[in-house]
Amino acid sequence: MRFSILPSYNSPAFRSVLPYYHRKRFIKNMTTETPNESESRSTVIANTKLTQFQQLIHSDSTNGWDECWKEGLTPWDLGKPTPVLVHLHNTGSLPKGRALVPGCGSGHDVVAIACGERHVVGLDISDNAIEKAAELSSVSTKAEHFTFVKTDFFTWCPAELFDLIFDYTFFCAIEPDLRSLWAEKISNLLKPDGELITLMYPIDNHEGGPPYKVSVADYEEVLHPVGFKATYIAQNELAIAPRMGREILGRWRRSIRESSL
């Protein structure tokens, strides 16, 4: 099914060229603070949180993400389901069956798209993230339709493959030299006719990370070699205000070939 928010752009010809974002604006836009707050205050707060977050990640590559969740340094977390994903779910535009959300964090997206026709697995490397997800979802009436798993995405070997994988703020969180491994793992986890949906963010020119800057070309570079081609690429006009113009929705299918766990 072809889903459209805005007119599509053919891949790989489409390349997003956006204005350069100053470091200060990038830091400010990492947050979900409301526009009516003072710009100087929000910039200082966001700057401090992002700096602390990055210091934790770079100082402890093993436990850094868990410490970030423990300390509440999670500028990527919307605190609610991703609007465009909810729209796709509500309009029947998502594959049924088994779905995976790597780097699920507090689990809002997992619960949002779980239903009788779709079992969703939320994956995260952080104990604190999984605990928060379990706590937030404990009152959900859809509990039988989702599962949270604490494990490393790159080494995880589930018993069954997936019909859908949704990636948002996960690709940009890993070191760029791991992106090829990410693509291989995605390929191995999806059924031959499965679909990968990527919400590409942040589309800009900042240096360093995480989050590391991304582009459509970055995804194509690692997904094309494992057989994936984009069926739809367009700006995400349902992005939250601070991220508007810096997110691109991509839907990917691959050539029929064997997947393996």
UniProtKB/TrEMBL annotation:
Q: Does the keyword Nuclease apply?
A: no
Gene Ontology terms: biological process: methylation
Q: Which residues form the signal peptide?
A: none
Which keywords does this chain's UniProt record carry? Methyltransferase, Phosphoprotein, S-adenosyl-L-methionine, Transferase
What Pfam families does the record tag this protein with?
TPMT
Enzyme Commission identifier(s):
2.1.1.165
UniProt enzyme class: transferase
- Which Gene Ontology molecular function entries are recorded, alphabetically? methyltransferase activity
* Gene3D superfamilies with a match to the protein in the record: Vaccinia Virus protein VP39 (3.40.50.150)
Under InterPro entries, the record lists: SAM-dependent_MTases_sf, TPMT
Q: What is this protein called?
A: Thiol methyltransferase 2
| Organism encoding this protein | Castilleja foliolosa
